[in-house]
Amino acid sequence: MKTIHKVLEKYDSKVYKNRKEHMVEVGNNDNNNEIAANVRTIPGIITQRGCCYAGCKGVVLGPIKDAFLITHGPIGCAFYSWGTRRHKARKEEGEDNYLQYCFSTDLQESDIVFGGEKKLKQSIQEAVDLFHPSTIFICSTCPVGLIGDDIHAVAKWAEKEYGIKCIAFSCEGYKGVSQSAGHHIANNQLIRYVIGEGDREIKNKFSVNLLGEYNIGGDGWETERLLKRIGYEVVSTFTGGSSIEDLKNAHKANLSLVQCHRSINYIAEMIETKYGIPWMKVNFIGVDATMKTLRDIAKYFGDPELIARTEAVISEELLQIAEYMEYYRGKLKGKTAAIYVGGSRAHHYQALLKDLGVHTILAGYEFAHREDYEGREVLPFIKMDADNKNIESITVEPDIEKYHLYLSEEDLNRLREEKLIDYYEGMVKDMENGTFMVDDLNHYETEELLKALKPDIFFSGIKDKFVAQKSGILSRQLHSYDYSGPYCCFRGAINFARDVAMGIYTPAWSYVKAPWKTAPILEGTLGGEAVC
Ligand code: CFM
Ligand code: HCA
Question: Which residues form the Nitrogenase/oxidoreductase component domain (predicted)?
Answer without folding.
Answer: 51-503
